[in-house]
Amino acid sequence: MRDGLARRILEALDAPGVDWTELALDVHRWQHAHDPVVRALSPAPATTLDAIPAVPVGLFRDLDVGTVDPAGPHVAFHTSGTTTGRPGVHRMRDTVLYDAGCMRHARPWLPRTSRTVALLADSPVSSLAHMVRGFAPVTGPVTWLVDTDGLHLEGLERVGEPTFLCTTAFALDAWLATDPPALPDGSAILVTGGFKGRRTHLDAGSVVDAAVLRAPVVQEYGMTELSSQLWSRPGEPFEPPHWLRVTAVDPASGVPLGPGEVGQLRFLDLCNLDGTLAIETLDQGVVHPDGRVTLHGRLPDAPARGCSLAVEDLL
Amino acid sequence: MSRWPDVEAWLAGLDAHLPLVPDLSPEGARMALDLARMALREVPEHLDRPAPAHTVFVASSTVFTVALEWCAVLLARGGRVTLKVPRGLEPWYAAITRDTGLPLEATTDRRVLATADRVVLMGSDATVEAVRAALPDPSRLLAFGSRHSLAWWTDPTHAVDLALDRVLYDGRGCMAPTGIFSPIPDAAERLAEALERARAVVPLGTVHPSEHAWIRERTALARVVGRVVSDRVVELPARLWVPRSAPGLAVVHPVATFADVPIDPARTSVLGTDGDVAEGVRCVELGRMQRPELDRLHDGVPWLTALEVW
């Protein structure tokens, strides 16, 4: 059953016209039968998309969410644990769906460069590091410039070939503070992670504007608990892939809001077959009628989290 | 000569400004102010010590009365006080410092920190760290970072006291119980009933979007591994306690013994208890958690004397 669903999802990635609702409900019914968390949140399987229970991301650090037996073979991505010190874990039987979905949507956004430089730490449990490694066939071999000793910006000093610079907002800000020269022609910068840290709140607009002077910038929004990502260019809404539905909900009630209303963001990700189909974040934003999303950062006063904080701690 | 009569008059006149208190219901703001002023009747007993010439008090945003006791003591002892006010409470602090006849002012300008003989700070660990780094003389700083409080409840008849600890300030302050640990079999039901009655008198104020999200998250967690007892109370295993309190939602953790209460003297601000007490932690009766007595160890510091030492 699981493999059959995986095959149908893989086919759906290349077929935007497929009956998305039917497939999502089939995935939900299968998850309902195999994930006690989903069953507890919805005693009977949902019959509409809106009724599929969205698991709050915080539950990933408290519970084994998903259909994967933690004692069996699996791949696990961990959150940075920056909010509580306890990481959340997203388990999957393999990364076939993750990789297919990630690359299918990322490819048009990726530059064809000679090398990739990551102002990130390489880690087998980081979904972000996994994603960047996956870019290498398109953007070039990866050099990692963050380790337990900190951020090694000197690794960027002798860049002489088109480079894809993958960075969190805080590492980007640290690099820009060195007043670096423009990157070589053909280079591009990928910015990911939030702009709000525990100690510092970066001005997203000015950081990105300053980065644009060094190379074209693309932005990515994703999280450990999701298998799919959203991409954008500076100043434009984020584009989800067609297999990722984004809904803004009222934080008080969880009820979906209309297009254009600011709300707490909820994601329904078909590639989350082994994890859980629907998750609810502590981020807020607007979902436009065309499905694109304008992010408004964290819900006011929600604890900061994410890969940016891990780098902020090293700065 | 003590300024206490002037300070007392200032405290008595604060009622007019209660509508400026954000987030709490009018009844909640009134109750908090009345109870805070009640504790300040003891101030005249603690005026035999000098005050720094100029103290800057950096107030946290969660409890609107927190500055009152510090101001009352410092002003009555003859000092001057500047309140560095937090986001959201500017109107309240502006009003209570206007035309008082006391050397008391409010500002949002953080440069004032550099001018003080003494800086008293209550805030997150990150804020403490940032302020300490910015001060020309960090030894002038008396800082209280992030702490949380817990309740140990053994006698069912104390439900109403515990409800008061949760209702005051809508449960936002660092002295509100983040987790209620109890061996009472129907503790959650009893607390839900007491909270229902308490909320009929003191309605819940404004709940912010991130707080709503947190409440829904805890409620979802309770559906999976605990119990949702009412809109106001959930029950969760003790291992899932987290040091965060949500307005309007109390979390009860069933435990067998006091040893199961996750007390950490370095992090626990107050233990409300009707039974065992813990070493190295300020222990108070249930119902007194958010009504601290004036002469106390504040997060381990004898604040009434610490004010003058630097």
Break the fold down into its secondary structure elements and pairings.
The complex is a heterodimer of chains A (315) and B (310).
Chain A: H1 2-13, H2 20-34, H3 36-41, E1 55-56, H4 59-62, E2 75-78, E3 89-92, H5 96-106, E4 115-121, H6 127-139, E5 142-147, E6 150-151, E7 163-168, H7 169-176, E8 188-192, H8 204-212, E9 217-221, E10 230-232, E11 244-249, E12 262-269, E13 278-287, E14 293-298, H9 307-314
Parallel strand pairs in A: 1-13, 4-5, 4-7, 7-8, 8-9
Antiparallel strand pairs in A: 2-3, 5-6, 9-10, 11-12, 12-13, 13-14
Helix pairs in contact in A: 1-2, 1-5, 7-8
Chain B: H1 4-12, H2 26-39, E1 54-58, H3 66-76, E2 80-84, H4 90-97, E3 104-107, E4 118-122, H5 125-134, E5 141-144, E6 148-152, H6 159-167, E7 177-182, H7 187-201, H8 209-225, E8 227-228, E9 233-235, E10 250-254, E11 268-273, E12 282-284, E13 297-298, E14 301-302, H9 303-306
Helix pairs in contact in B: 1-3, 6-7
Can you give a write-up of this model?
The complex is a heterodimer of chains A (315) and B (310). Chain A has nine helices and 14 strands. In chain A, α7 packs across α8. The C terminus of chain A is likely disordered. Chain A has 315 residues and is an alpha/beta fold. Chain A folds into two domains: 129 residues, Luciferase, Domain 3 (Luciferase, domain 3, Roll), CATH 2.30.38; 149 residues, Rossmann fold (3-Layer(aba) Sandwich). Chain B is of the alpha/beta class and 310 residues long. In chain B, 31% of the residues lie in helices and 18% in strands. Chain B is built from nine helices and 14 strands. The two termini of chain B are 24 Å apart. Chains A and B meet through α3, β1 and β13 of A and α5 and α8 of B.
